[in-house]
Known about the structure:
The protein is an alpha+beta fold. It has helices at 2-32, 96-124, 141-144, 164-177, 206-213, 234-238, 257-265, 309-312, 317-323, 331-357, 369-382, 384-402, 410-423, 429-459, and strands spanning 37-52, 58-72, 126-129, 152-156, 159-160, 180-186, 192-198, 226-229, 245-249, 252-253, 271-278, 281-288, 290-294, 297-301, 304-306, 324-327.
Amino acid sequence: MLNTLHSAASFIVAIGVLVAFHEFGHFWVARRFGIKVLKFSIGFGRPLWSRRGADGVEYIVAMIPLGGYVKLLDEREADVVIPPQDLPRAFNRQPVWKRIAVFAAGPVFNFLLAIAFYWVLYMVGVPGVKPVIDEPPPGSVAAKAGFKAGEQIVALDGDTVATWSVLNGELVAHVLDRGVTSFRIRSADGSERNVEVDLSAVHVDPALLFDELGLSPFEPPVAPVIGEVIAGGAAAQAGFQPDDRVLTVDGETVASFKTLRRIISARPGQVAKFGIERAGQTLELSAIIGSETVGGKAIGRMGFTGKPADASVAGQGDLWQDLRAELRLDPLAAASAALHQTWQVSELTLRLLHRMVIGEVSVKNVSGPIQIAQAAGFSASVGVVAFLSFVALISISIGVFNLLPIPMLDGGQILFGLIEAVKGSPLSDRLQMAGQQVGLTLLLLLMGLALYNDVASVIG
């Protein structure tokens, strides 16, 4: 219950900030051009709070925090009576370039907010993990290329990668390029080598490409000691208890918790015999391994967690510390990195949307409010840096989404304006109405898909 409330509160804070900044972009540019603003609303539906300012604008906070709007003076609005002195300030009487600028301002402000957040984060320091790899699974792209456990990827095509977070973004971009990528690899002894890897055959879907690449973070060996047994899970039903040490699974020796996780993951729905050590005694427990579908593939789950690293890896503090990294830059370099990050995320979002349309990326990647709220709650629980990174990412997504040339969105209105600028007159009311209907249908379908994915993730 507390986790749900925390996620909901984090979601409302994040979306509230993003919507307010987006709508403020429309508001600010309209006011700079002398266009009269009637309402500024954060949220939809029944107003929870409203006040009319000295500037004549009605400011509103509404019940549904999933958007907002700025209502401008417009002669096309049937319920608006316009005094003659205000007619020059009506939105529909403005030159087309001003109207386009007002529509573009919301998404642009979302990009500016992301740049500002990234700039601050890079100056404060973004913690991460060095891109040291674990043993690639047999048959994976990394295994075929000769990558070994403990090696660190230091650059891709000459571009330095300092953390796993940076590497993940770069890998998605390189896989989308469908070509050969040069990996700069540093071995444990400090020597470096270049490895050319052909990524043209790797799935572009983020849910699949990392498994195919076979690249995962290196983990120092953690003892296979159980930390928490989840109520109702396969482990609880089989009689597992906290502090049990798993020795074998069907006779196969278990040397680390990662080995245990690998064995379980590969055997969804199967019966297995676990040899365990409990309070100095050796026991055998039989269990039916649970199953969970991840990315369309069944994965074995037992319903227990391992002991925290600091409790089960005594004496390995230095090894864990060596894997930590921090990306901290001076103000000028941070500004450049913030611009690059915002551009890269925007480009990747558009490219993945294109691949989704042509069927190369699963529509399961479309998240709705439930999954976004869960991510908001998780990032907020990790810390301020993680939460601001999450808000910056969502801000970019909102900016990109609103610039899509779909009627009902800012991008659709910009498209109408560009057509008007080229042909010298607006589209007919009939065509604009038809476009609005198509746009509304597309948005409803997208919302339905997002909600379906949310429900499926909860049920799954």
